[in-house]
């Protein structure tokens, strides 16, 4: 009756323990009857729980912008999935499966829209002068080519001082961020999320992680600057609430979820294109090919769909990167696609949680009040 | 404080009436405090509420398969968005924006995996002999070319008799379906959803519609045969519950939504590729270009992500078509992208509702019991 096949507990975790329709429907395990997700986060509940991934951030409070650098300690296999209507990106074509380079050195998420794309210039120079990057050989005087795919969000109209003329701050901020890279970093009004707005609420940087029954880790980081709302209309229940683990973003439960047709709730409704964009990076320690990672990125993108309504609008530049550090190996070759499906499912949940955490932790700009989720009644 | 801009009630409906963060948070309108979505469906709550769209279905109970034809009374502008890892499709490249033909004559959703692709053969012949289809002129003896993009789901292993040898039933079923096309059709175990399984539950054909404040109509139809579950783990709450209108799929509310990390709930977990697939078609009466319709399709795909967990897995062939019959015109050219965003948002909701309705209405095959949502305790 039940079509689920038990594939070994190491691979399919909790799903493998379930029985038929009738018994599953009666919801035996106590943990499941609570209106809360169960699951295990990594020790920090951050993307840096994935071994080999470090994050650094920097911001400029006067400009109301910032940069987040996701550093792969060793080159990592990468994929990208762009679903927004107004993306600002760099080095995304390099990630197409048919292209030469398989691995990246870092991913940058940045404020500043097209100006933010410059953040990768200085990080490339910084890395290149230290001999890091892709190279066809090692001829003297020939610098390697660091591969640093970058996505930017639009924060040009958030009230900060953008009179930078010939010197946008992104080259400076990105090196500051890179040099600050470590395991711990701030959520909320920080890094690429410093100047972000998530619909009508203050947006920010969110991150979360999950450790699977197999011991595999999946982490996510996201800068939430969506046109859509992260809470359901008429309240403050996060769309991501069904995925919340241990009150990590307030623990309100999911009973407040209801959509109300054309009511976008606390969205940032406007006709001006490119003023929004949610940008994200997923990482896992499981070794995947670039093509497998592409499927994982596609599945992970669903986390954005679940946490933000609407997502992927013409005015969003929604872009999602996916990294594999390759520390863990899938031992049974016949199970690779199943593993991809499991990782993709977990990644979608972790991303949805990260979106909520970014807004949950956001604080107001100095001298401003009333824009944050925490201030909502 | 609130960035939403009022853009005229005809265009942005309920969203336009909202105020700032504080007041929206207090949730004034009574309708919003109920844990239920508000919104208006068309008279039938089916995709055929979109003027100019008819649907016909046929099935073979012994084979446990069927076909659904979505007929555009006049050629309709179309787009497609493929996000599953194992699609079975036909005439999808024709829909790329840079290609010649702008309009389609029908969309077919079919069971039968690769065999189901033959369903379009006989529909093309049927239409061609009646002079319907794309043609560069009208030379005597030269039939036109009916454009009939088709997507199939995998129902080959559902226990029906598939010993069809050289005569798969799809050419026959599709003409039967076409000739039955009208405004009313069955949901659940019918048409392309006859042999479908939605995770561990009996799947089926779902359909729903929404009439926007502007008077625009959006409808969806979907055959739900997902690897993922349409209900949250440990219970029978539909993932689509936040979008439900007027108890259209049981009215259980959303408080049972919780994800439980690696527990896929009532999914169809299996390592065999191409045994799943959710295929859908959205329609609207609003005149959009093919490129605008592509964006609407991308946004609509999020409805699948919200209603099914996981979606877009390697083992899914998830494919979504989008049709515009062009009966209503967007009068303000500056508002076109806003309109696309509104339509895409509504389409995602309508698709999520359709997924739940397909499973809600599903009945068992003759002589089988215990596989349906309705039988769950």
Structural category of chain A is alpha+beta
Q: What fraction, in percent, of the residue positions of chain A are helical?
A: 10-25%
Q: Tell me the strand percentage band of chain A.
A: 15-25%
Quaternary structure of the protein: homodimer
Distance between the termini of chain A: 47 Å
Mean pLDDT of chain A: 88
- Could you give the order of the helices and strands of chain A? HHHEEEEHHEHEEEEEHEH
Total number of helices of chain A: 8
Number of strands of chain A: 11
Question: Biggest β-sheet of chain A: count, sense, barrel?
Answer: 9 strands, mixed
Major interchain interface with per-chain residue totals: A-B, 101 and 101 residues
Low-confidence sequence ranges of chain A: 1-34
CA radius of gyration of chain A:
20 Å
Describe this structure in words.
Two copies of one chain form a homodimer. Chain A has 377 residues and is an alpha+beta fold. In chain A, 21% of the residues lie in helices and 20% in strands. In chain A, strands 1, 2, 3, 4, 5, 8, 9, 10 and 11 form a nine-stranded mixed β-sheet that branches. A two-stranded antiparallel sheet of chain A has the order 6-7. In chain A, helix 7 links the parallel strand 10 and strand 11. In chain A, helix 5 crosses helix 6 and helix 7 runs parallel beside helix 8. The longest helix of chain A is centred in the last third of the chain and has 25 residues. In chain A, 65% of the residues are buried. The interface between A and B is large, with 101 and 101 residues.
